[in-house]
Amino acid sequence: MDTRQLRYFAAIYEQGTLSNAAEHCRVAVSALSHHLANLEQELSAKLFVRKPRGMQPTAAGERLYTHAKSILKAMSAAEKDIRAADEEIAGDVSVGMAYSAVKAIGVDLVRRIMSDLPKVRLSLSESLSGSTLMHLMSSEVDIALVYNPPADPRLRVQAVLEEEMLLVGTPAMIGDTQEPVRFSEILDMPLILLRQGVSARALLDDISLLRKLESRAKLQMNSVQAIGASLAAGLGCAIGTKLFMYEQLESGLLHSRPIIEPTLSRTLYLCEMADQPTTFAQEAVRALMLELAAATVTSGIWDATLLLPDAPQSRQAMA
Q: How confident is the model at residue 286, as a pLDDT?
């Protein structure tokens, strides 16, 4: 199996017919068909079923396309990267961030790339932490900021910061006091949580505590906007960070209380695929992301403790 076969195979998969793929690749249909037959023989698997309206991928074809997309993307990035090694940093970089990370550094990251890395083309996507991780695993993004990712040998991770989790709700719902609330007391409150699954891990990484919360939750949602609106409407309370509902907390619409017995926290990681080559552009963007995260923590904008090597502590930690 060689790269030309993979390119031709991917073209057939994406274009849907041999004729369209041949036109896309600028080769004869017979040549394309010949390479496909050789590839199927080499893999001992049927990759497509010929239908009246085109080529329908088999299960083997679907699996091969997932690998081919990743391989071809990596090869293209490597070629661009090496060609640009002695030139100004350039290239495409896709970044995925959880909601809180976008809120903290998203705009500053765009601004810095536009001013410091003008030849880098940034693609920035925001989603719940679990979805961000899935986008990384499927090669839709190159770099991801994710809370509490599961241990996975396919991932290369770096701990960035740790945030304390608070009880958030209207003063009438959770009490207009700064007194800590026990975890056991929260279980009897009308909780609103992220829906079960990979997104819920962003709340906390202690599975036993997470199970208790999920079993008692009144509502489960996979929408930050819906959770925020429900909190403001007094429909329930949630476990989150100061940054999560910063504007509402500052205005007094919502209130927060520390959680004890136990205290709860979550860790933000910068994640990349371990088997994917890193380009100069990705290195530069990664460095910017870590620089901005450190700056927002040390300035007090992001209420967290930095976990980066040799990083200064937050203002709260130094106090």
A: 96
Residues 177 and 257 in one domain: yes
Question: Rounded to whole angstroms, how far apart are CA atoms 271 and 198?
Answer: 15
User: Looking at the predicted structure, is the pLDDT value of residue 229 above 80?
Assistant: yes
Query: Which amino acid is it at 69?
Result: K
Domain CATH code at residue 272: 3.40.190.10
Counting the structural domains of the chain, the total is 3
One domain, residues 253 and 176: yes
Residue 132 CB partners (closer than 8 Å, separation 6+):
96, 97, 98, 125, 141, 144, 145, 146
Residue pair 95/125 in contact by the 8 Å Cβ criterion: yes
Rounded CA-CA distance 117/45 in Å is 45
CATH of the domain at 19: 1.10.10.10
pLDDT number for residue 298: 93
Counting other chains too, the contacts that 286-289 makes at CB distance below 8 Å and 24 or more residues apart are 286/143, 288/109, 288/112, 288/113, 288/116, 288/117, 289/95, 289/105, 289/109, 289/143, 289/145
Looking at the structure, tell me whether residues 170 and 247 fall in a common domain: yes
In terms of pLDDT, which residue wins out, 1 or 230? 230
> Cα 231 to the chain's mean position, in Å?
25
Specify whether the CB–CB gap between 277 and 264 falls below 8 A.
no
Q: Which domain holds residue 252?
A: 166-263
Whether residue 10 sits in one domain with residue 78: yes
Q: How many angstroms separate the CA atoms of 271 and 286, rounded?
A: 10
Co-location of 281 and 148 in the same domain: yes
Instruction: Choose among 91, 146, 163, 94: nearest CA to 120.
Output: 91
Residue 41 Cα distances to 35, 37, 46, 186, angstroms = 10, 6, 8, 61
